[in-house]
Amino acid sequence: MKQAGDFKRTLVTTALPYANGPVHIGHLAGVYVPADIYVRYLRLKKEDVVLIGGSDEHGVPITLKAKNEGITPQDVVDKFHGIIKDSFEKFGISFDVYSRTTSKTHYETASEFFRTLYDKGEFIEKESEQYYDEEAKQFLADRYITGTCPHCKSEGAYGDQCESCGTSLNATDLIDPRSVVSGSKPVIKTTKHWYLPLDKHEPFLKEWILDGHKEWKSNVYGQCKSWIDLGLQPRAVSRDLDWGVPVPVEGADGKVLYVWFDAPIGYISATKELTPEWEKYWKDEDTRMLHFIGKDNIVFHCIVFPSMLKAEGSYILPENVPANEFLNLEGDKISTSRNWAVWLHEYLVDFKDKQDVLRYTLTANAPETKDNDFTWKDFQARNNNELVAILGNFVNRAIVLTHKYYDGVVPAQCELTDYDKETLNEIPVLVKKVEDALDNFKFREAVKEAINLARLGNKYLADTEPWKLIKTDAERVKTIMNIALQITANVSILIEPFLPFTAQKMQSMLNLGGLTWVDCGKIDFLSAGHQVNKPELLFEKIEDETIQIQLDKLQQTKEANEAANKTAAPAKENIEFDDFVKMDIRVGTILEAEKVAKTKKLLQLKVDTGIDQRTVVSGIAEFFKPEDIIGKQVSILVNLAPRSIRGIESQGMILMAEDANGKLEFVSPANAVKPGSEVR
Length: 680
Known about the structure:
It catalyses: tRNA(Met) + L-methionine + ATP = L-methionyl-tRNA(Met) + AMP + diphosphate. Its cofactor is Zn(2+). By secondary structure, the protein is an alpha+beta fold. It has 19 helices and 25 strands. About 40% of the residues lie in helices and about 15% in strands. It has a 5-stranded antiparallel sheet, with no helix packed on it.
């Protein structure tokens, strides 16, 4: 088996984000930050590497969103492709090309790929029964069918999954299925599709993955083994839909390539757009291909896409698929449908110029081997206690003291002490640790060791105390400051893959450029007499108030979700009509209102009922100020027996409506009526 160093070039692909919404921190932590770190690392090593990305713009969720908003699917993907691409650029994800699956090149590439497999006889054709909407005159994809879940009995379950209990479903499992398109009850109808016979490729996959790639991450290898051991089945590569790449064979009207088949071909079409030499990245055995994805895409990139490539015959296969697990948010699963997410485009506004703070937090807490949790408090702590207190503090000390003592001119090293040598010898050790971790896709470990070099610099300055020594041994301080600056230069290289904006600032302050990974470990970056520039603040402390704003935003989302999902209380037991007519409900006008002393909830009201003016005690003080409800018309039960509340005799009951959030609203006539009017 080839090792990484045996290849001439590296092709890195990232899962195509779905263009029906923006990207969030879960996407970043799982796919895009680790991919960008790895590619930046290889570029620093002067290796031939390309980073390929793009938007996945086909599929049913996009057509559903378009239908709900009364726009076209193209309108949807144009909007979100723009938002996603802009967010990635501003966040520093350094794609060589960021394309889209609605491009002309992609349509041609996907059609050609399908046709090649079709002409080689690599597909099987078979008929299946599928739901059909007779009113809309179209077959229905699973997401176009809703009904009652057979497991939890929740209404509104989709044909592929119940959102309430999470159970995977077949559309035919639903109770009382309905078409999302017309609302009518669908019928079963026969349709023809093409299938990729994965079972045919099972022997190859066993040998290639289970025997040949035992070095893959355990979560990736384990999921592949589980699928293969269960036995693979043919998988449809087409579906009945009017949005997507048309199936390029005769008699396939109204059918498009299934999005799972279409999307990974987007890596190939994007590379075609990048370079006319695209084949050397896809068909040359000297190319190493890596797929960066989340765990929900493991099967597609390790079993399905390789089977497609193998069937085509001229493409290389991935050498590694370093998939991550999922990132949760404040203890709950990130969900785009519930708006439970930190959206990248919003973060870039709320935390201007703090891209590296989020990159650092997501890397230090990356879900590499298990699901992990992002919390705003951890984000704040990592910024304040690590980026500010360790990295920022060290760099600031080194540059500030150089300007204070030497007007920004690098002093010469004099005789080195044992402690100086010990410190300098630690630099290549840490560089090797970072390198080994990156080579093995262990990004959490890599960023920790990179920051440890700044810790080393902090410790060196704290131990040598040049700010004290300058008064008694100025010559010794020159050596100390020279070493501190050499460490700073090394740090600027080590952190560049993780914190590119910070590394750029550091090298600008040091007046250095063109540094590469080969330079790591050097202790003579800055020669005596070199001029360094004025210090800039790399990071600033994030205060509790800033974090609370984000926590409040999430709390509002949580409350909105709870309100949206709250169902009306079931009806009480039936009563007889004679019981109902005993109640005398009138329209009254509030004349006076005041708080009841020593209570939070009670207001004492004087109400003109048209019959009389009477006192009513009502538990509405949390929702209404007394002065705001004078003159308000309300519904009042006037024949309720009086009762004493906090020593006040209450003569009736004001009728209120309670919304899903527990807020009370008056039950009032739409237009003013005479007090005493009966409510019937």
